[in-house]
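quick one before i forget lol
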Amino acid sequence: MQSPESGLINILKKNKIDFISTLPCEKIKGLLHRITGEFFHVPLTREEEGVGISAGIALAGKRPAMFVQSSGVGNMINALLSLTGFYELPLAVFVSRRGIYKEKIAAQLPMGLHLPGILKGAGIPFSVISTLDDFGLIGKKLPGVYRNGKIHAFLLSPAIFEKTEERGQGSGVRGQGPLLHSLNNKIHPISFPKYTRHEILQLIAPYIDNKVVVCNLGFPSKELFNIKHQRSNFYMLGSMGMATPIGLGISLASDKEVIVIDGDGSLLMNPGSLATTAHFAPPNLTILAVDNSSYGSTGGQPTLTGSCVDLGLVAKGFGIQNIIKASTGKQLVDALKKPYKGLRFIHALAVPGNKDVPAIPLHHLDVKKQVMKFLKM
C-alpha cells in the first residue's frame, strides 16, 4: 500500500507540476522532504514571496504549486488577490491545516479554525482534504486550476500523515550555487543621486529592448510605459513587494533575459526575496533597484534607505555576488550595456520625484497575454 506522500506526489506528477515552493511544517515534514528530491523545489523565506515567484513561473507557461501551513495563508492573501487572481494566473496551494487535529500550539488555533471562512470571504475556492479518500478530489480539481488560470487551496488534515513512516528530517537546501559566496562587489565608495527615476528609465531604455522587464507598481510602471512600452514589459498594478519575486520566477522558468525594475520601498517590504534570489543566482536575471528614499507612488513619504539602510549592503548580506552602486549616467549605462552572464544587483541612487504621465491604457489581462506570448517565442 502506497504512503500518503507517494499518493499525493503521484497526483502532482500526473498533473505535470513543474515547480513547488515551500515553507516548513512539522506535520508534513516527510512529504516536504520527498518534494525537495522529486520536483524543482523553491525554498521560501515568506509565503507572500512564493506567490510572486509562482506568478512569474506561470507567466513563463509552467505549472507552480505551493505548500504552506494554515498560519501562512494570512501572509499571502493580498498577493493572491491582487496578483495571482487579478492577472488570472494558476496556482494550487496545499495547506497543512494546523489547529484542528491534536494541535499542541495554542497560537495555531485561530487560523486553523477560521481558515475556511477567511478563504470563503476572499473568494478563493478550497477543498477540505480530511482522509486519503479525499485525494481523488485533488486529482479532480487540479486540471481546472491550470486550464482556467485559477487559484485553489487544498486544506490537508494532519491526520492523513500521522502514521506515515516517511518522517524525514530533510537534507538541507539545494540550489544552483554554493550557499556561501566569495563576494567581489563593485561598490563605488562615494555616490550621490543625480537623476529622478523617470530620468534613469530614459537613460537605460535603449538597453532593455526585447528583454523581459518586470516593473514595480504605481508611477514606475506608468513612467516605463511612457518611455519604453514593449510587449515584454510586465507592468505591476498591485502587490507591492512582488517585483523581484516575479522576476525570479520568470528567470527560473525561462531562458529569456529578465530585468526587474524594483524600488527601495518595495524591497524593504519583502527583503527575504533577495536571499531566495541569491540562493538560485539565475544567470539571466538583473535587479535594478531604483532607490530614491521615498514611497513615490503614495505621496513621497521617506523610506529608511534615507536614514539607515544601504540596499547594496543588504543585497550583499543576503549573498548576491555582483553588486554595482550607480548614480551617474555613465555608471548606470555601463552597468546594463555590458554583456554579463550572472545575477546582477544594480543599486541605482535617485532623487525623489514622479513624472506626471497618464495611466497605462492597457487592460491588465492584455499585459499578461503579451508577456506570455513573448516568453513562448
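fyi Residues 169-189 have pLDDT under 50 and may be disordered.
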